[in-house]
Amino acid sequence: MIKKQLAKYGILFLSVLIGLASCKSKEEIGLKDAFKDTFLIGVAMNSDQIQQKNKDVNDLILKHYNSIVAENCMKSGIIQPVEGEFDFSLSDQLVCFGEKHKMFIVGHTLIWHSQVPKWFFVDEQGKDVSPEVLKQRMKTHIHTIVNRYKGRVNGWDVVNEAIEDDGSWRNSKFYQILGEDFVKLAFQYAHEADPEAELYYNDYNMAKEGKRDAVVRMVTKLKEQGITVNGIGMQGHLMMDFPEVEDFEKSIIAFGSTGAKVMITELDLSALPNPFSTEGAEISLRADYEEKMNPYPNGLSKEQTEAQYKKFVDFFNVFIRQKDIVSRVTLWGVSDKDSWKNDWPIKGRTDYPLLFDRDYKPKPVVETIMKMTPNP
Ligand code: G3I
Q: Which residues of the chain have pLDDT under 70?
């Protein structure tokens, strides 16, 4: 009898200890704790953050995020700038940081029409290479990188931005030389290199019906061909007037119907006017600087701050409502100061697209979204 009681109290004592160890003070609780039973919450790290140049910034990353992705250092033009010459200096540091802190590590991105070195597509005479040569170059690129991080990088943006807004194929050099098969080959090579890694297709403007339907067709066809596609990445480069949250949710549901996970891979919400009639993240587009396009150089107006707050809340409501489909939400940068949106599509603007301000302080919306989930 006494033994049973001792055992019971022993278990009770242990569970209290574990409870105490796992419970954090209010100040210690971050986004990742709030969303721990909802989805992974990640952040894109720039080269300074990967090199851990600022301890406070890295502490913020560790407090709030359980997933990381390199903003730039794994792109083909950086990681293999010259054929056969790989630079893993930054990507190794990113992966080690993620492993040390038991984070979900995402590799971005293996095959993208942008930031790809010219040598990929031309022979010594500067002419387009044959399909066979391009296949071999893609295979070597993907096998070398994915093999290096086999069992360490958890998911890969295998192909980025292959479809246009209207659903047609982007006329990239990959498409010109290999046709749509370049997508199938990229996923095949990645799966050969690491059969355990999750493999994703990633794109922007995924709330547009034409692109939505084309991506559903493409992923469905790939899966029917026995190609492993684990997830579809909706980049989520939002603007104040685009996209409608309803259209974004329709796309989450449509992509989920393929059986793939859906992740919001590059979330930011620009508060600045859009100089183009089109929306999105077509990095090749540029516009000239005009004062009127940079209306908040010293801080957002009260109205803009409130409007942005509401839009973030509306989108996080959708992400949480669709949590059975959405496996990850990744912010495309740590603080407003770090965001690519300060210089795209117009250089030298002051944008406010992320969850932390230029002093790395959480915006009020952080506390609000943390209360939107059932966790503490
Ligand atoms: O590191 C060099 C620096 O040494 C040099 O002095 C400077 C001169 O301009 O360039 C620096 O590299 C820049 C790099 O960002 C790091 O800041 C490149 O010029 C610039 O093109 C690059 O922009 C990145 C862009 O992709 C193109 O690769 C942005 O940071 C990055 O946020 C953006 O991210 C893309 C995703 O990968 C795919 N989805 C769209 C998204 C936005 O375009």
A: 1-2, 6-7, 10-22, 277-278, 375-376
Catalytic status, residue 124: no
pLDDT tens track for 218-229? 999 999 999 999
> What ranges make up the beta strands (E) of 204-260?
231-234, 237-239
- Digit-coded pLDDT (tens) for 295-351: 999 999 999 999 999 999 999 999 999 999 999 999 999 999 999 999 988 899 999
> Residue 241's pLDDT is what?
93
71 is catalytic: no
**Which atom of ligand 1 is nearest the CA belonging to 115?**
28
* CB proximity list for 121: less than 8 A, separation 6 or greater: 128, 129, 134, 173, 177
Q: Give bridge partners of residue 245 from the DSSP assignment.
A: none
Long-range residue pairs from 242-246, CB within 8 A, at least 24 positions apart, any chain = 242/274, 242/279, 243/205, 243/207, 243/208, 243/279, 244/207, 245/311, 245/314, 245/315, 245/318
Assigned token pair, 251:
């796309």
Q: What is the pLDDT of residue 144?
A: 98
As a dihedral over the C-alpha atoms of residue 171, residue 88, residue 102, residue 232, rounded to 10 degrees, the angle is: 10
Ligand 1 center to 161 CA (angstroms): 16
pTM of the predicted structure, to 2 decimals = 0.93
Any ligand 1 atom below 6 A from CB of 79? no
32-49 as b/e, with b when 16 or more CB fall inside 10 Å? bbbbeebbbbbbbbbbeb
Quickly list H helices, 243-301.
245-256
Strands 67-70 and 104-112: parallel
Indicate if the alpha-carbon torsion angle 48, 270, 358, 102 is positive or negative. negative
